Amino acid sequence: MRADQAAEPISVAGPSRGMSVADPRRAAEVFWRLLEENRIMTLATASGEGPWAAPVLYAWEAGPVLYFMSRLGTRHVQDALVTGRAAAAIHPNETRPLRGIQLAGSVERLRGERARHAIDLYLDRFPAARGRFPVEDVLAERGDIRFFALRPDRAFVLSEADFGWGVREEVRFDG
Question: Which residues contact 140 (CB under 8 A, 6 or more apart)?
Fold first, then answer.
């Protein structure tokens, strides 16, 4: 899904500090644009062993729902399966102007048609991944590769170019 095709199920709560946004829809636009422009999210989890962060490729759709693939034995997946929660940061490599998304939400292992849907979105976003993992094995739950959904219940967007230095806007998901 392109940023200009995204549904608008969100409202803006206002800045977490600093100046206010003249047009509250601007934060939503920046959020969807950053989701589309970037491809890697740093997924953060925690367990009794402490916090952990891992980079994963993601596909997404309005809701929002972010889909990622990983191996069952990885620490971030084990943590997420136990707690059902994760946080993530998504940002471009450029340092100026600083832009990015911070979010937290529920994580769920996908099965059946929901896994197929996630795989289709993932392969549309990353065509070079075709043939690099056994799709039928993933769907049949053979091997250790699985697909997961991260559904944010809280998100912030930061964009110096749009909101000024040091200002992040909370984006709330309606419905």
Answer: none
